[in-house]
Specification:
Elements: H1 3-6, E1 13-16, E2 25-27, E3 37-40, H2 53-58, E4 63-66, E5 83-86, H3 90-101, E6 110-115, H4 120-133, E7 138-141, E8 145-148, E9 151-154, H5 162-174, E10 179-183, H6 186-190, E11 199-204, H7 220-228, E12 234-240, H8 246-249, E13 256-261, E14 268-278, E15 281-290, E16 294-298, H9 303-316, H10 323-332, E17 340-342, E18 349-353, H11 358-369, E19 376-380, H12 388-401, E20 404-407, H13 417-428, E21 434-437, H14 441-450, E22 457-461, E23 468-471, E24 474-477, H15 480-488
Parallel strand pairs: 2-3, 3-4, 4-5, 6-10, 6-11, 7-10, 11-12, 12-13, 13-14, 18-22, 19-20, 19-22, 20-21
Antiparallel strand pairs: 1-5, 7-8, 8-9, 14-15, 15-16, 17-18, 23-24
Length: 491
């Protein structure tokens, strides 16, 4: 493809070479540079892609996308036959060039982008379930995986790099997909991974302080501002009317606006929510009113399940899905590691959930308390090389809301698990909550199972869909479902 065609939607300056150059491939990893390829010099938090110029040129790269003028740098020795294109932001350029390289596949799909602190993953699966029950073919990009037809690809990031997103879109088009539902993380928006995507619908679930730190967002205001970018990039915005930060998220929006929630003024409302509880089963039922009117029951407990399902209904309404299809699809929608029930006993309930910050844990435990368990038992740990504040807060939340907390290890990375556990204990000691500490996660799970009492609800929090434990730079296989099976088999 001609370079000039790839640059057609960008503002740029050609520092040397020709726009008539023929590009044979695009890459942002120097190891993937090849003869005739275009290489994006990305300035990241860890490394600067400009320093790989000699390497990619030696591999045959003929076009460099740079955000620093590197033509005068003697250490880089850029040959005269290599075209150098200067842009303001090479990440933004990568998004637009990647879209052009694949022939703008997003324009051949209806793209639904869901942003928010929590609820994104569950909602994407609910939307996929509903739309497929109505006959659509739906691709998915999210925290757990990418789904293209029958193919399931492991996800490394909630929102992949733009070059990968466009490749997935292209493969979805070729697989016959009509619609894509994707999680749009604040990091993805901030790093321009979703730049240039014409979102049909942009969704806002909720926002609370999270992902704030040196490697993520500098402040809550910055986090808010990144989330709000989606609503300057979609045709219709569907937002949670109950969220206190709604107006800040809508600041500068360019889309049509619809709302959902419990609020009287919401366009699509949930009313008469009722907990449903039977032996081995927790769920919730409610009435949808406003732009649609019908009763629904979800096989996932709690108020957040109302929000997630109501969001999915608000989305699918735009695709003229029949009410019976919506109800049937919601009944069978389940997400790995999101309030995932695992059968271990006829006497008590055990579930696995991804809650890995104080807000998510508080929401989960408050929800489960409403079902009046004999005891609410919460097992969790906190990740190493992350905020200590999260540890204190999670300890305090579990100490306040759970009858028993089992503190264990969760991705200690380069810290000692016992040090992390000590920080959690600091938080829990602010409460009167009972707790035990068991460093080995399998032993901690075994403790919760062997000490389960009739009527208990047991939550294994933090890992969710993750199937590894990260220790000193290496990921070791560890799936809680496998551990539970081994414990039940006496291994």
């Amino acid at each position: 493809m001609k370079l000039e065609k790839l640059l057609e939607r960008l503002t740029y300056r050609c520092l040397q070479g020709s726009l008539d150059a023929e590009v044979t491939g695009i890459a942002n990893d120097s190891r993937r540079a090849a003869d005739g390829s275009l290489f994006f010099c990305i300035k990241g938090a860890v490394t600067d892609g400009h320093k790989y110029i000699p390497d990619v040129v030696s591999r045959g790269a003929k076009v460099l996308i740079v955000q620093d003028d590197v033509t005068d740098r003697e250490d880089l020795q850029i040959p005269d036959d290599v075209t150098v294109i200067l842009v303001e932001d090479s990440r933004y350029a990568m998004a637009l060039i990647s879209a052009a390289w694949y022939g703008y596949p997003a324009e051949k799909l209806k793209v639904i982008g869901i942003t928010g602190t929590k609820g994104k993953t569950t909602t994407t699966y609910m939307v996929k379930s509903i739309l497929e029950s109505a006959g659509y073919k739906v691709g998915l990009i999210g925290t757990i995986e990418i789904i293209i037809g029958e193919e399931h690809i492991h996800a490394d990031n909630t929102t992949p790099e733009s070059i990968l997103i466009q490749e997935y879109f292209d493969r979805m088009v070729k697989a016959g997909c009509d619609i894509v539902v994707m999680e749009v993380a604040s990091q993805g928006l901030m790093l321009h991974r979703t730049a240039g995507i014409p979102f049909e619908l942009g969704i806002f679930t909720n926002i609370e302080p999270d992902h704030i730190g040196p490697a993520e967002h500098t402040s809550f205001e910055h986090y808010l501002s990144c989330k709000s970018m989606l609503f300057r990039q979609c045709k219709v915005g569907i937002l949670n009317a109950d969220d206190a930060h709604l107006q800040q998220i809508l600041e500068g929006h360019t889309c049509e606006v619809e709302t959902f929630g419990f609020s009287e003024g919401a366009d699509l409302r949930a009313e008469n929510a009722q907990l449903v509880s039977r032996p081995g089963y927790l769920g919730i039922a409610y009435t949808v009113t406003g732009k649609m009117n019908f009763d629904v029951e979800i096989d996932i407990p709690g108020k957040f399940s109302v929000y997630n399902s109501l969001t999915a209904i608000a989305i699918c309404r735009h695709f003229k899905v029949d009410v019976e299809d919506i109800k049937a699809a919601l009944k069978k929608a389940q997400v790995k590691g999101r309030v995932e029930m695992v059968k271990v006993s006829d006497e008590f309930t055990l579930m696995i959930d991804y809650a890995h910050n104080a807000m998510a844990l508080e929401s989960l435990l408050e929800t489960l308390r409403e079902y009046h368990p004999h005891r609410l038992v919460c097992m969790f740990g906190c990740g190493g090389n992350r905020s200590k504040l999260r540890r204190y807060e999670m300890g305090e939340v579990s100490g306040r809301l759970a009858d028993l907390t089992v503190i264990t290890s969760d991705n200690p990375r380069f810290e000692e698990p016992e040090d992390i556990i000590a920080d959690i204990v600091t938080g829990i000691k602010k409460t009167d909550g009972k707790y035990v500490t068991i460093t080995n996660r399998k032993e901690a799970i075994a403790y919760t199972i062997h000490h389960g009492e009739p009527g208990d609800i047991v939550v294994l929090a933090g890992k969710g869909h993750e199937d590894y434990q990260e220790i000193r730079g290496k990921k070791y296989p560890m799936d809680e479902r496998v551990l539970i099976r081994e414990i039940l088999e006496g291994r």
